[in-house]
Amino acid sequence: MNQFVVQNVTIIDGKRIIPDGFVQVKDKWIVAVGSEWMDNHEECECIDGQGKILMPGLVNTHGHTPMTLLRGISDDLPLERWLKEKIWPAEAALDEETAAAGTALALVEMLRAGTTCFADMYHLNREGTALLTEESGMKASLSRGMIAFGSKEAQREKLNEAVTYAKACDASSSGRLRGAIFPHSPYTCSLHFLQEAKAAADVSSLPFQIHIAETRKEVREYEKEQGKRPIAHLMEKGILSNGSLAVHSVHVNKAEISALSHAGVHVSHNPQSNLKLGSGIAPLPQMLNENIPVSLGTDSAASNNTLDLFVEMRQAAMIHKGNEERAEVTNAQEIVNMATYTGAQTLGFPRAGLIKEGYEADFILIDTRQPHLTPQLNGYGALVYAASGRDVTDVFVAGCALMRDRRLLTLDEEKIRKEAALAHEKWKAAQ
Ligand SMILES: N[C@@H](CCSC[C@H]1O[C@@H](n2cnc3c(=O)[nH]cnc32)[C@H](O)[C@@H]1O)C(=O)O
Ligand SMILES: [Zn+2]
């Protein structure tokens, strides 16, 4: 049986800090956590955590993995022009093979930076993505993105594909995959299609996710056409309901925040993507005050341009302090909780996101014996204001080692980087 102990380590999760602690793992579970390890099991493997922080694996609640191949193709444009002038034409030249190479690259990038669980929404290479995620040992919520501009038949076909994919993910034998239904947005799908997608999600007990209220222009134009703001309207129609995930939610007013809270809708906050596309700043402090489960997402590498959740944590903490001219408006512990515990709950992994007995052993080690992490005065502050994904040395998911001493064990990093470069060439030639 898989059994080991990490000892002499600083344990930090969203709820507490144990300065000189241990974590005992059996099979895929954390079976004991404490401050003094009594070594009475001879055959138990011990990992020395001296000089390290042990924290829950980071959870990225929004992204599009194949788009790593489009990193840098369109910097410095607003969302609408970014999509219509650059991204959509570029995506037309991606195929199953190049998308697969982009996804593999994204998994390597995320794993190296301590992400153990992620959301991925894309239309290409779906079975391949599920398979590779399984092989990597990571956890994920996977969905087929749907833009519904086409004929009724084409729309129905997409929705069928989406349901088939989500159900297959939910049924994965490892139990590390979840499926979701993700129509792209209220400006690329009709209200009727959103209702159909929501009904299909409900029938199969699948969670519903959507990009919404990302830019002021989206909200203004939707309101002009429908007489209501997008979040208010979708909530009224029951399209956004308990457990749904509203991605971005940048332009939300007080009434919408309160409605989201009452309905139990989750929010994925993607501050770096929202800043880079000039979309705006989501009212994170106000949403947290209303107890909305807000987690963090990177969005794709085409609007970020990395998949490092440490960067996202720092952005999430910093922009609101500056924006509101109040340093107390966000705090590092809450940000760590969003990036771990809340994220895991949002993606459908209720027993993940904490270093606690009875939770799955999804955790990472961070090397603090470096100048920028010395001295160790405030653990939460170190993680949010000083650390980066490059400080992660080890990654464990469900008790399995996926990275040890900065070496990936389940993914062939060299090969994946080479294949990504080749896929980039192939994509360029197809332009
Ligand atoms: N073409 C697909 C649907 C793709 S949805 C996923 C798409 O979302 C787009 N996207 C990525 N990030 C964002 C964002 O932040 N806001 C809006 N759209 C985005 C990007 O074009 C990506 O391909 C179909 O209907 O078959
Ligand atoms: Zn997105």
In short:
With 431 residues, this protein is an alpha/beta fold. The chain has helices at 79-92, 96-112, 126-136, 152-170, 191-203, 216-226, 230-236, 254-263, 271-276, 284-289, 309-324, 332-346, 379-386, 413-429; strands spanning 3-12, 17-26, 29-34, 45-48, 52-56, 58-60, 115-121, 139-143, 145-146, 177-179, 182-183, 209-212, 245-248, 266-269, 294-296, 363-367, 392-397, 400-404, 407-408. The chain folds into 2 domains: 3-57 and 353-408, Roll (Urease, subunit C, domain 1), CATH 2.30.40; 58-346, Alpha-Beta Barrel (TIM Barrel).
What is the name of the CATH class of the largest domain? Alpha Beta
The termini sit apart by 51 Å
Strand content: 15-25%
Protein structure class: alpha/beta
The stretches of 5 or more residues where confidence is low (pLDDT under 50) are none
Rg from alpha-carbon coordinates: 21 Å
Overall tally of structural domains: 2
Family: Belongs to the metallo-dependent hydrolases superfamily. MTA/SAH deaminase family.
Cofactor: Zn(2+)
Function: Catalyzes the deamination of 5-methylthioadenosine and S-adenosyl-L-homocysteine into 5-methylthioinosine and S-inosyl-L-homocysteine, respectively. Is also able to deaminate adenosine.
Catalytic activity: S-methyl-5'-thioadenosine + H2O + H(+) = S-methyl-5'-thioinosine + NH4(+); S-adenosyl-L-homocysteine + H2O + H(+) = S-inosyl-L-homocysteine + NH4(+)
Describe this structure in words.
The protein has 2 domains: 3-57 and 353-408, Urease, subunit C, domain 1 (Roll); 58-346, TIM Barrel (Alpha-Beta Barrel). Helices cover 39% and strands 21% of the residues. The protein has helices spanning 79-92, 96-112, 126-136, 152-170, 191-203, 216-226, 230-236, 254-263, 271-276, 284-289, 309-324, 332-346, 379-386, 413-429, and strands at residues 3-12, 17-26, 29-34, 45-48, 52-56, 58-60, 115-121, 139-143, 145-146, 177-179, 182-183, 209-212, 245-248, 266-269, 294-296, 363-367, 392-397, 400-404, 407-408. The strands form 4 sheets. Strands 1, 2, 3, 4, 5, 16, 17, 18 and 19 form a 9-stranded mixed beta sheet that branches. It has a 4-stranded parallel beta sheet with strand order 6-7-8-10. The radius of gyration is 21 Å and the shape is globular. The N and C termini lie far apart (51 Å). The model has no long low-confidence stretch (mean pLDDT 97).
